[in-house]
Design goal:
With 207 residues, this protein is an alpha+beta fold. 39% of the residues lie in helices and 22% in strands. It has six helices and seven strands, in the order E-H-H-E-E-H-H-E-H-E-H-E-E.
């Protein structure tokens, strides 16, 4: 039987968390001629960690990361850190680290625009930025446990409503199963069309 431990994230697990990100989502679809396939994953995870104060990981007996949840809990002073990270991303884009510069800038602009449209009208207290479980640990209810543990902490901190962003390239039906409600949805050509007209979603749940 696989032994799994739920523990706080620390920076020693960054590369392993990136590996799980790569297993779960294909960011390379948005960029052409990437110099290093890890570049978008590294920057994205850095941004998530700057924004999140609730960071838990699941590790096996070999200390491999099998799952994680990165979410908001307590307010973080992150404006300066985000400014510095965005400056690094800009320089990396100009240097061609994200592949063809015009395509990379076009994607960043569209993502910002579509996120602004998606979030408009949605109201929640804290957000889940990332939730993932490795294929090696699927079917064990780990995603459900990660969400439920987070909800418990939210209630303890008098947080009444959480939200998250997801898309058709993720298993968004999981959030229906967990009792989340779809609060906002739209179509964007950043993602492949799904079974529905919309493929970009905001889900919310009362804690």
């Amino acid at each position: 039987m696989m032994k799994i431990e739920n523990k706080p994230y620390n920076s020693n697990y960054f590369d392993k968390a990136v590996d799980l990100l790569k297993e779960t989502w294909d960011f390379t679809l948005h960029f052409k001629n990437l110099k290093d396939l890890d570049v978008p994953y590294n920057y994205y995870l850095q941004e998530v960690l700057i924004n999140c104060s609730y960071c838990r990981i699941l590790v096996d007996e070999k200390d491999q990361v099998l799952g994680f949840i990165f979410a908001e809990m307590h307010e973080k002073s992150n404006k300066w850190k985000l400014f510095k990270l965005n400056a690094k991303i800009l320089i990396s884009t100009l240097l061609g680290d994200f592949g063809k510069r015009s395509d990379a800038f076009s994607f960043f602009w569209q993502y910002s625009r579509d996120c602004k449209a998606l979030y408009k009208g949605s109201r929640f207290d804290n957000e889940v930025y990332l939730l993932a479980v490795s294929q090696k640990a699927k079917g064990k209810g780990l995603g459900k446990k990660l969400i439920n543990n987070y909800l418990k902490e939210c209630r303890n901190n008098k947080i009444s409503k959480i939200g998250l962003q997801t898309a058709s390239d993720c298993n968004y039906n999981f959030y229906d199963y967990m009792g989340f409600e779809r609060e906002s949805s739209m179509y964007t050509d950043m993602y492949e069309p799904g079974k529905e007209d919309e493929n970009f979603f905001i889900y919310t749940m009362k804690a």
